[in-house]
């Protein structure tokens, strides 16, 4: 059988994402800060785009040319688009209130400027939370706050006992007592003054009483670090295998217990949408603050009129880019508004009563409600925030799985997490609630069918230690 080359015609349909469609999808999933940077970059690169200075949208279309002048189909399409597009609305004056406008004021009862800061979970906040769960006296808690405030990024105490005594007015004995107390917090070994002290606290908490192991940590960490093993073998009269076992146990300890926590940064979050109550109805208003109001530059439209060749090609390319950017911005705001409107429809009880009333919701529910694809809903809810009467929440927060109720209904997982957090905050520190007890309490109060391992998973996600560790903190 011989091989041969032949030509063949084939007609088929294929879905291709144009660069303009890719741009629209990218804009859809950008956060507010990223969107501002993207628009500013386009303003620098595209002379056809400019900022609209006055409040009223000017007529961006250039004067019509003489009737005798010939036009290409591309020219006519661009001029028609520039003439007929309502660029004032490209950011969307969207609101559920008929009387709302882009100058409408946000009600004062919405979250304040300070609530837009989201503090990371730091070592200091983690230790202070544990400190205030204890039953120490107010004087000892103040000393504990001073100790925690003088910890370095790795968890070591940077201030001496005398320095802490001078700043707090307490006795050195009281300082040492509180320092020893803080060292037993989670992570165990914080507030230590040296690596040896840090590891010894961890061994003591673990119930380790081997005198050889304790002596190795207390007096011979430098010998182990420099691999000076022969003097250790002679001193403790142990074999090489025994020494290797001890060294392995030491390596399993954490010499820098605070390194797993990040720094105390507070990123600023500007909400993309406001939801507030006006009489008996909720109003959705998009946040347009900081988003540039774009328009087509009439000056450059006139300047490129009648040009040909490469100049005409350059103008058409920049014109298409400007028009698609403005259309994409409009579509982004419209989609965000429709998604928020659908979320409000499904989660109305949350906006009325708070997190405890959050219902189960998935992307498919909202996608079917607004007749869009799930991927579009996923993109538009990524890195987008809503200011609600109960605080600032990422749009992803409103989507959560459901847990079955005895009555046949369902309750959202976030509502269950809120209930667990409330139970732990109100528990007796000396008798903390076990996971089994939390299961029974949830069954009693909310009629929820939930497994113990699910409670443990939610508790871990909330950063709450187990009952045995919470009891040890007291």
TrEMBL record:
MF annotations from Gene Ontology: DNA binding; DNA-binding transcription activator activity; nucleotidyltransferase activity; sigma factor activity
Biased composition (Basic and acidic residues): 64-76
Originating species: Desulfohalobium retbaense (strain ATCC 49708 / DSM 5692 / JCM 16813 / HR100)
Record's keyword terms, sorted: DNA-binding, DNA-directed RNA polymerase, Nucleotidyltransferase, Sigma factor, Transcription, Transcription regulation, Transferase
Pfam families: Sigma54_AID, Sigma54_CBD, Sigma54_DBD
Domain RNA polymerase sigma factor 54 core-binding span(s) in chain numbering: 113-300
An individual GO BP term: DNA-templated transcription initiation
InterPro entries assigned to the protein according to its UniProt record, in alphabetical order: RNA_pol_sigma_54 (IPR000394), RNA_pol_sigma_54_core-bd (IPR007046), RNA_pol_sigma_54_DNA-bd (IPR007634), RpoN_core-bd_sf (IPR038709)
Family from the record: Belongs to the sigma-54 factor family.
Gene Ontology cellular-component terms listed: DNA-directed RNA polymerase complex
Domain RNA polymerase sigma factor 54 DNA-binding: 313-472
Designated name of the protein: RNA polymerase, sigma 54 subunit, RpoN
Region annotation Disordered: where it falls in the sequence: 48-76
